[in-house]
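Posted in: Protein Modeling Q&A

I'm a second-year student putting together a small comparison for a lab meeting, and my supervisor asked me to include a predicted structure for Altronate dehydratase family protein. I've never done this before, so apologies if this is the wrong subforum. The sequence is pasted below exactly as I got it from our records. If anyone can share the structure token output, I'd also love a short note on what stands out.
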Amino acid sequence: MTTATPRNPFIRLDAADNVVVARMEVPAGTEVPSEGLVTLHPVPAGHKIAARFIAQGEPVLKYNTIIGFASEDLPPGTWMHSHNIAFGELQKDYRHGLDYRPTELLPPEKRATFQGIKRADSRVATRNYIGVFIVGHGAATVARKVADAFDEEVLAGFGNVDGVVPYVHEQGAGMELSGEPMDLLRRTLSGYIRHPNTAGALVIAQGNEHNALDEFLAATGLQPGPMLRTLVVGEAGGTRKAIQAGIEMVARMLPEANAVKREPVSAEHIMVGLQCGGSDGFSGLSANPALGAAMEILIRHGGTAILSETSEIFGVEHTLTARAVTPEVGKKLVERIDWWLQYNAGRDTQINGRVSPGNNAGGLANVLEKSLGGAKKGGNAPLMEVYRYAEPVTQHGLVFMDTPGYDPVSATGQIAGGANLICFTTGRGSCFGSVPAPTVKLASNTPMYVRMTADMDINCGVVIDGEATIAEMGQRIFEQILRHASGEPTRSEALGVGRNEFVPWPIGVTD
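Accepted answer (user: helix_wrangler)
Welcome! Here is the predicted structure, written out as tokens:
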């Protein structure tokens, strides 16, 4: 009878690291033969211990990357976290474009396909919605009531329409009449209205917004027609009459919106917005690098991956600038990082060191460690372009969009830019969803996946469990992306999550 070899309770990520990560909750006094030490303290799952003596002020290395500095002398086996890992300034070599290596694209005839919806302008949709939009918050109730009139019973006769969704926000008034804040709001709304997944749109105004309806249409070049209708509450005769008029307008769009079919199209039409939220110490070991591996596959098939959350790549942005297609693209990213540093100067925010309480409890000591894991969602693909928030994404491959770290705001910008699918990694169990582009949820650890199976689509915890490699998980994720792009509902879609997660970046709200 043979005895199974006990699994190492800690994971070594790189030979040069001076920390190792707990695979599970580990009691004090646990022997770690692979490192020749004994744990000095209880260690929560996903947290770190010193793998050797680390002197005060010495860099702490994870994935052979600095995540902070020892705030005191740390004997081997010491539990290491924000209480003894200090946040500090890093010297970065941006190496703009010096490490660029072009992706070897598969020839068109060898690229994967999915069942997509071809639009008249040759773009491809993964879903088919009618949207009810507002230019300012004053029309929110009307928009909600118009959309709510089209429940499952009403839409039963329109099987190719995924739903009628209200896109309600709190902007459009109490802000500058022109300038970046207004441009940003209009760019976001326009991006959703023009999105391939939006078959038709109704745009509603109260009638006295700063974001005036006529000016919004003129600024964005949107032209009303049979599938883009407008409604002004005051001109319609008030709330009740506006609701009825809006319902009638949407009803007239339904037959044309329904007249679509899915057909095989190239995976080059898939554009994925990359998100992480409720991250833990395993996110950067399993879900994020596995998603990165999937994105490398997608990019080889001609597709696009949008990395974002600018404040959450701070500290590792040089790993992206080094593989930028040109020095100019790398410098665009640094310019956005500099904007965030200036904007957050003197504030108690993440970019200045501290992560959220949930991230911290999950094993992330500071923003450097979080950024190290978060950037892995893009894999090792070259950086092809940098976009501002909600700008239309036209470049294929790995691109970056400047967004806040707050998931609903960030994903809203990505979808406005054209993302027709969102992939969202989580270690703590974030329940985000989105429309019109669906969200695929990837769990970083098996215990959370088991607890929240109804919310999670993919369990990347099997990497931590030793049951799959990063490459194997990347292939699984890519294949599931193709299925969801073909119409297979995600867990968040089945739960109806996403109708309230439209959150344009509220920069510039002044009164």
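A couple of things worth pointing out for your meeting: The two ends are 75 Å apart (CA to CA). Residues 239-258 form the longest helix (20 residues).
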